[in-house]
Amino acid sequence: MTRPLILTGIDLPLEPSCGSTIWCSDVYTRLAGHGYDTVFAHLPGSGTWRHGFTATAQLAARKAPYGPGFDAYADALTDEVRGLLRTHQPDLIHAQHLGFGLALAFSRAAGATPMVSVAHGTDVIAATEHEQARAVLNEIVEASVHVIVPNAAMADEVDRLTGGRHTERLVVVPWGVPLPAAPTAHPRAGRRLRLVHAGRLDANKDTVTAIEALARTEGHQLTVIGSGGELGTLTRRTAELHLGDRVTFESFLPRQDLFKRFADFDAMLFTTRTLEAYGLVAVEAQAHGLPVLFSDVPGLAATLGAGGLSFPPGDCAALASLIDNLAASPATRHILHRAAVANARGHDIAHTTAHLAALSRTATGGA
Predict the structure, then answer these.
(1) How large is the C-alpha radius of gyration of the chain?
(2) Which one of 108, 167, 235, 269 is separated from 118 by 20 to 30 angstroms, measured CA to CA?
(3) pTM for this one?
């Protein structure tokens, strides 16, 4: 008997360079255990990533962001997707992101093939800021049987952006991560903390708040691990604040290498300024035993639970106070360590995959 096939993908390079591609590899590796095969469409990458997709399809269209060139880009992708549909004849489409060009191409080429779309965060943020992105989001939601969102805050925002016309299509599926057998980071003695900020370096991740908070403290060390367009700004700000001996920058690390580094730290700083779909790296840090000091943006407190402490987004003084209070209380560090590990146990990727498999069956008319 032929296994049902899902056509999905993201118009990004096939690399573990962002949470979306990592999450997809985690999920679609495990969907094979629920009886599904996957073809993942993508832009060119290095070809070295050990992902979990059954098969991949490299796209040829030249990527263009929102603006004058986006429509032509979406048209070129739509032609490519029609070719993929003819070649692979999938039973179902999973459109990742509610605003990227490939998701729009899926919605326009789908025809009789049912489509489930998945919100990732950057797409919803873009739709709040750009009229063109909002129109794309609405077109994708209109074409979807189900629209998967990782938390209630994201569901509310998508519902608002679509004028409440498709509320019944929105389904909250909490995201998850692969859990380690045991935490690798453990509370240490001492009043000087080793802090880590890991992830994409862009304006919304607001890493500068972590750096400016450190300037308001004494003795603590911060390691920033990641790559992105904000790196130059962050290094200049570090120099302006005379923090060169206390802030270290390291390039993006593959996931397993980052996991090994978690044992070097006492807590993670997670400084997102506006909307956060999930906070994948923060939950991974919790699973390895790190408390998370996080900005209280919609949905994040529910994700990180009692395994962290929150501060108002962008408030470096409040974050500095959290850092100093955590450093002064070994008992609090032990409590947060245990709570972080317990909270992460509720975010098992296996549960996410089971939800997605069930929704996929309903989308194709199964029980």
Answers:
(1) 21
(2) 269
(3) 0.85
